[in-house]
Amino acid sequence: MDVSLFDYELPAELIAQTPVEPRHASRLMLVNRQSGEISHHTFAGIVDLLHPGDILVANDTRVIPARLYGQKSTGGKVEILLLKRLDERRWEALVGGKRLKPGVVVTITTGPDSPAPLTLTIREDLGEARRLVEFDRPVNGLLEQVGQTPLPPYIHTPLADGERYQTVFSRIDGSAAAPTAGLHFSPEILLALREKGVLLDYVTLHIGLDTFKPVTAAEVEQHAIHREYARLTADTARRINQAKLSGGRLVAVGTTAVRTLETAALRSAGVRGSLREASRLDPNLCPWKPVAAIEEETDLYIYPGYTFRAVDVMLTNFHLPRSTLLMLVSAFAGLELIRRAYQIAIQERYRFYSFGDAMLIV
Fold first, then answer.
1. pLDDT at residue number 121
2. Number of domains comprising the chain
3. Does any domain span residue 155?
4. Would residue 51 count as lying in a domain?
5. pTM of the model
6. pLDDT in tens, 65-96
7. Three-class HEC string of the chain
8. What's the pLDDT at 288?
C-alpha cells in the first residue's frame, strides 16, 4: 500500500500551539462509520454521545521530563531525549550533537539546587540518532530537577503549565509524549460520564517519539514500527469483558489505547509471538472473551486491512500526514471516510495535532 495515500496538505495556522481552556472546550467531530455522516460538536457533548454500559478505556501513562541538555569534554553542546528505561542507569535515547560515538562522556546541565554533577556515557550506537546511554547513577528521582518536559517538534509556543501536557488521569511515569486524545477530559466530564453510567478503566502504554515520526518507506508494509511497553491488568480485562458481554461498547481513548486493547484481544485469541503481521491473520479468529491481561512490548502495526477484534468506538485527535497514527485511524474508519473527514476538518478550521480538537468514530 502506497504511503502517499496518507498524505494531505495542512495550513500551518491549524497546528494548535496551545491547549484550550477548559480542557473540554475543544471541538469534537463525530464520524459514523456505517452511514458516513459527519457532524460537529464540542467535546463536552461526548457525554450525550456515549451510552450507559459503554466502557471507556484510557491510557494512564505520564510524560517524564525526558529532555536533558549537556556538553562534552570538548565543550560541544548535546541534547538528549530519553525514550526507554532499560534498567536503573541505562536508557535508550535520541541524541543531538556532533560525533556522539560510543565512549563519549556527557555532563548534564543542572540547576543550582541540583545534586552533584550528573554524567552519562554513550555505550552503543543504535542507528540514526538513537543511542544506548548509561548514567553514572540512577536518574529516576533526579529527572524532575534536571530534565524538561519534551513537547512535540511542531509546537513552538512555550507551555506555561506543564500539567497541560499531561492527562488528568496520568499516573505511571514512562512516556516521551502524551496520549493526546486524553487531554480533552476534565474532572467534570469524567464525573458526568460516570453519573450517566459509562464505565471507566485504564491501560498503560508508554509512548516513544516514533508516534510523531512520518513513515519514510514508499510502502506502508515496509515501515519498521518500534515496540512500546503495554500493560492491561487482569482486573481491567475482567471489567472490559463483562461490559462487552453485557452489550456495552468498548470505547478506546486514543491510538495508544487501541494498540493495547487490540494486542490484548489477539493474545486472548491465542496468538503468540510478534504481532506485526496481525493484519494477515484469519479475520474470523475470535476469542471467547474479548481481551486478556498483558504486560509486554507490543509491536502491533495497524493499517488498512487489519481486522479489529475488541475496539468498537475510537476517540482520537487529528494526526500528522504519513504517520502510523493516521494509518491506524484509517484502518478503523476506512481510508476514504477519513480523507473526507480531514478535508472537512480543514475547511471548518479544526485545530490539529497534540493540542488540537478531537474526533469520535462510532
1. 96
2. 2
3. no
4. yes
5. 0.92
6. 989 999 998 999 999 999 888 998 999 999 99
7. CEHHHHCCCCCHHHECCCCCCCHHHCEEEEECCCCCCEEEEEHHHHHHHCCCCCEEEEECEEECCCEEEEEECCCCEEEEEEEEECCCCEEEEEEECCCCCCCCEEEECCCCCCCCCEEEEEEEEEECCEEEEEECCCCCCCHHHHCECCCCCCCCCCCCCHHHHCCCCCCEEEECCCCHHHHHCCHHHHHHHHHHCCEEEEEEECCCHHHHCCCCCCEHHHCCCCCEEEEECHHHHHHHHHHHHCCCCEEEECHHHHHHHHHHHHHHCCCCCCCCCHHHCCCCCCCCCCCCCEEEEECCCCCCCCCCCCCCEEEEECCCCCCHHHHHHHHHHCHHHHHHHHHHHHHCCCCECCCCCEEEEC
8. 63
